[in-house]
Write a structure and sequence with these properties.
heterodimer, A: alpha/beta, nine-stranded mixed sheet, two-stranded antiparallel ribbon, 11 strands, B: alpha+beta, Butyryl-CoA Dehydrogenase, subunit A, domain 3, Butyryl-CoA Dehydrogenase, subunit A, domain 2, 3 domains, seven-stranded mixed sheet, 20 helices, about 10% strand, globular
Chain lengths: ~290, ~575
Amino acid sequence: MKENKKFRIIVLAKQVPDTRNVGKDAMKEDGTVNRAVLPAIYNPEDLNALELALRIKDNNPDVEILVLTMGPPRASEIIRESLYRGADKGFLITDMRFAGSDTLATSYALAMAVKKLMPFDLVLSGRQAIDGDTAQVGPQIAEKLNIPQITYAEEITDINKNEIIVKRRLENGVEKVKSTLPALVTVHSSAPDCRPRNAKLIMKFKHAHTPSEEVQKEYSQILNNRSSLIIEQWSVDDINADTEMLGLSGSPTKVKKIENVVLQHKESKVLTNSDEDIKGLMNKLISSHIIG
Amino acid sequence: MANFYTDNKHLRFQLTHPLMEKIIKLKENNFAEKDKYDFAPIDYKDAIDNYDKVLEILGEISGNILAKNAESVDLEGPSLENNRVRYARGTEENNKALIEAGLLGMSLPRKYNGLNFSIVPYVMSEEIVSRADSGYANIWGLQDCAETIHEFANEEQKQEFLPRFNKGDTAAMILTEPDAGSDLQSVQLKATFDEEKNIWLLNGVKRFITNGDADIGLVLARSEENTSDARGLSLFLFDNKKNDCFQVRRLENKLGIHGSPTCELIFKNAPAQLVGSRRMGLIKYVMSLMNSARLGIGAQSVGLAEAAYREALKYAEEREQFNKTIIEFPAVYEMLTDMEVKINAMRSLLYETARFVDVYKAYTFIMQERKLEPDERKELKYYQRLADIYTPLLKLFSSEWCNDIAYDAIQIFGGTGYMKDFPVERIARDARITSIYEGTTQLQVVAAIKGVTNGSFLKKINEYAEELKGTEYEHYNDVLLKMVRQYEDAVNKVHKAENSELLDFQARRLVEMAGNIIFSYILLLDSIRDKEYEKSARIFIQKAKADNTAKASYIFDFDIELLKDYRK
């Protein structure tokens, strides 16, 4: 670890609609996600990324973890959720001019924000978010920052101030790779689950807020005396971004068509536990290369 | 993602009881620490919000980790390796999550690394953990030992031991011996003072010790030579991390609560520190510790009952027989509703008792800092007296009822419930111990009968009746006051005989009659705050009236001569 200054890890986290337990009304008629009925949650693989960052910090107090999130004002909750688990500080990038950004525009904005936090040693993020499942943002940020990237990380097996060794979870097994730092690592869901929120931290940081969030008047004086309760909020101008490269104008991705796929009962086949049926299923799984 | 706190609205209802404002103000010393600790509450609302948020973390861990591990922990259990206890894999995982969440040392002051929560949320944590895994709840509930150290140990000992709880050190209360179970006065384990080393040494055997190989042990031992009663016993602190002077000789193979290791311990010149004054071990310190533990068993029983009820309800809603879901049959829905009513009643008594303990404990600690004002002293006495009689009443009813509820839950499952495929059989096995340990039901009667004979229950009942006046439920006073008179007549009938054997014989009936009336009132008082409880109150009162009438009839018809028919 670096001697004079703290080893800086930036965790990129996103607030997403919980698409894991969707009901009938999860999609609107036009095929877009009905965000109003789905609870906003911490993107699961971003939590895995935060856990890997926290583990590095567990073994070395000279590590600082900064969490960066981009989204509407209510995404400040992601910062608080990170602070409850042991992150040191959080930044919310929010601006109406980001609206409609695709992965290219989003990665541009995030890369600009990360640059503002230079010098950093490591950027960690989830492999992909459950609302878009593109897995493009992490790699694009690494390209824009011109640093090495390691995707599908399951474990950081070794890290020092100059190098990182990462175990990657791939389709056919695992792979260990080494990279120089700074680097960007995207984390797979097979990495350890994030630790629970901590009692003392939740009592402290529940009062953390962005400048635009209101604090109860009678608390304001006491809270001002408590350090680190301010969540910094950045606009397009704060991260020195070019408006042309953001939002709809910065997004070449155009959605051509959205299809609503409803799984029909006829697509499923009922199998009994007879030897014949089990054998048939095994053969089918092997022949379609699902297993074997 | 299950959350055993947020999915149970009754918990928040209890947490926001009007008396909580007073309790928190006392506990927080008017929020004096808000400028000293950045996690200390600013006012009452902030403190309740803290309780709520922290219990939400606990509820999440209980629902997602503890409950999921319960089955494997039940199968695997702890093991003995080189005379040391090794927890089941799931138990280790539970410990890790709860330590990481910083939830231990919940009621300890902040200066000892605690959260400075009052008793009510701590008891609630015991209920929540127990619903997930009641065996693990014993390990969790042994934080009671921290309370005892906090109350009676000296400052140096507090500094040494208390901050370790939040970091995850476990504890054990080491009392029982082969020949000293319910009768703790006959404890033999010997404590001798080594003048040279200036330390106490413990020698002897302890049996049935829950979590016996814990990091920190509170040991009851005979420090006074040539004594044989309670006045020769003192309480000692043993640091199992530092010293290696005891062995776990065996682990008991039990019916239930497999996650909780039950140990036989051999002490050989084990160095220990005296807690408080000599000779006060059983009389004062263990009595206090036992009271907290009994409150804990109350919470454990409510948690178990909640778990059993939820399993049974879900199954009854899904299971079809004779072309109907079985919940549609009166025989089944009556069982389920009875369970629900009993759970509402026992939970209400649990937190009523916890609030009484909270107020008097808060004053006890204030008393260590300054002299109490006369009206404060009066309040301390009032709540302490109530806690003393409500604690055994709670332990008695809740442990018996959680067994009834677990029994009925299996009944609703039918043959399926007898198999190991569903958790109800485990819940029933786990429930069985609640009416035995920390004082059997029969011993709770011995403790609670004081409230009958000295009129304390009656006094509190009259206060409840007053509280009900002027509310929409006032009309219930008619039927309840009749029950009160019936109870008084039954008590007088037993008293008149001036025979202690008869009093002992009828004691449980009298205590339960008082209990039935108390439950009726607290359910009505709950209904004033939330109409949700109205139905439970109505059903409970109807059944309580019938039950008390049966008991009264038995007492009135009982001739003292009949005792000989029962004697063996």
